[in-house]
Amino acid sequence: MMWIVILVLIIIYLWMIAPCKKDRPDDSMLRGWLYAHRGLHDGNHQVIENSMQAFRLAVENGYGMELDVQLTRDGQMVVHHDGSLKRVCGVDKLVQDVDYAGLPLLPDGSRIPLFTEVLEMVDGRAPIIVEVKHNGGPAKNAAAAWQILKEYRGPYCVEAFNPAAMKYFRENAPHILRGQLASGGKWKKEELNLASYIALRSLIVNMISRPHFVAYSVPTDHTVSMWLMKNVFRPLLACWTVRSQQVLDDAYKAGYQYPIFELFEPKK
């Protein structure tokens, strides 16, 4: 009887982590690109992450880009990674607690860009991986992102750590390629509670988001969950954040299609 119980548990677990393959959107416009993490920045010395300059440089140098979106207090969708403004802008406030007009400037003197401004500048010249942040509400951010993206004609996909954001796209825009972000690294209790960490590491959040692709941290993807994902389901794969040519080469060998890189010049 024990083997039957084990078999049932394995089947349940595989169902929980399974990606969506039915009616998966065409991703041909997204393949073959290298994606600059938060734009083509230099670690925030000269070119600031998630700035218009970083995105412009990505386009000019022939790269796609990954960026982060969330809402201000007055409902403006801005491109900024952290929930707080402190690390990048030096102001100890949350983005969701400040109106757009009251946001501090970036260290280079430019404004935190609106999502619409970035899309207008890129104008379909390079593909975009849009990470929907959870700050202020993942579903709320997803809904706002979709209202903007439905008017955009360039190639893009969406992803999130919080599966509720991708659940929104699953239910309201199933034709948009969506991804579940996850990590196999060590638990950082200041960033995630233990339950969320386990759920993301083991990919059981997939039962909520049912992603078309999995975006996993490299080189920490040597987990049972990712082994099963690669060998049983063979989904589309994105990898973050690649910081050397060796890691990039290994990611390609491991079957990753969408490499997200920063702080080095990869071979195209």
Describe the structure.
With 268 residues, this protein is α/β, with parallel strands linked by helices. The chain has one domain (29-261): Phosphatidylinositol (PI) phosphodiesterase (TIM Barrel, Alpha-Beta Barrel), CATH 3.20.20. The protein is built from ten helices and nine strands. It has helices at residues 2-17, 52-60, 86-89, 115-122, 138-149, 163-172, 194-201, 206-209, 224-233, 245-253; strands at residues 35-37, 64-71, 77-79, 128-132, 156-160, 178-182, 213-217, 236-242, 258-261. Strands 1-2-4-5-6-7-8-9 form an eight-stranded parallel beta barrel, surrounded by four helices.
Question: What are the key terms here?
Answer:
single chain, 268 residues, alpha/beta, TIM Barrel, eight-stranded parallel β-barrel, 34% helix
Furnish the topology, listing elements before pairings:
Layout: H1 2-17, E1 35-37, H2 52-60, E2 64-71, E3 77-79, H3 86-89, H4 115-122, E4 128-132, H5 138-149, E5 156-160, H6 163-172, E6 178-182, H7 194-201, H8 206-209, E7 213-217, H9 224-233, E8 236-242, H10 245-253, E9 258-261
Parallel strand pairs: 1-2, 1-9, 2-4, 4-5, 5-6, 6-7, 7-8, 8-9
Antiparallel strand pairs: 2-3
Summarize the entry for a quick read.
It contains 10 helices and 9 strands. With 268 residues, it is of the alpha/beta class.
